[in-house]
Design goal:
Protein name: RNase H type-1 domain-containing protein
Oligomer: single chain
Organism: Sesamum radiatum
Strand order of the largest sheet: 3-2-1-4
InterPro entries: RNase_H-like, RNase_H-like_dom_plant, RNaseH-like_sf, RNaseH_domain, RNaseH_sf
Order of helices and strands: EEEHEHH
Distance between the termini: 74 Å
GO molecular function, one term: RNA-DNA hybrid ribonuclease activity
Strand content: 15-25%
Pfam family, one: RVT_3
Largest sheet: 4 strands, mixed
Structural class: alpha+beta
Length: 158
């Protein structure tokens, strides 16, 4: 029986701090937590303005869950509250590296036809499913083909 000992070299601490958002912006900081795998989970967040003043904070008990569900719920609830309280424009900060999305952009519904088609079908037929490439047929396949070809869509003024 052999033992392997690894010498750990202490890493130097780094200084980190919360920073305010740009003037006239708000910042949502979220966190999710769970105790065990899976275990009791919770989600929370706080929205502050460019002077650092708190506009609202929230906590959500989730019962049994996982860290990913807790982190995503914290973001979802924060966005929902920011919208309800007109706290925009909004920067979102999370400490879960696995959830980071490098770029979220707005797209008009007319140019988001594939996702729009899927959600309308899901809502009207009460579907929950995952589609792989070979499962995509009919109208959805046509929408995706047109997207790949760069076909433009008309958007009427609203």
């Amino acid at each position: 029986m052999g033992f392997l000992f690894r010498q750990t070299v202490p890493r130097a601490p780094s200084i980190v701090r919360w920073s305010t958002p740009s003037p006239s912006w708000f910042k949502l900081n979220t966190d999710g937590s769970f105790l065990g795998k899976p275990g009791l989970a919770g989600a929370a967040g706080i929205i502050r303005d460019s002077d650092g003043h708190v506009h609202l904070a929230y906590q959500v008990a989730l019962g049994t869950g996982t860290s990913v569900i807790a982190e995503l719920t914290a973001i979802w609830r924060g966005l929902e509250l920011a919208l309800a309280h007109n706290l925009a424009p909004l920067v979102v900060e999370v400490d879960a590296m696995a959830l980071l999305v490098s770029d979220i952009q707005h797209i008009f519904r007319e140019a988001n036809g594939a996702a729009d088609h899927l959600v309308k079908e899901a809502a009207s037929l009460q579907l929950t499913k995952v589609l792989r490439h070979d499962d995509i047929t009919g109208v959805l396949r046509g929408i995706l083909y047109l997207d790949r070809q760069g076909v433009p869509h008309l958007r009427w003024g609203r």
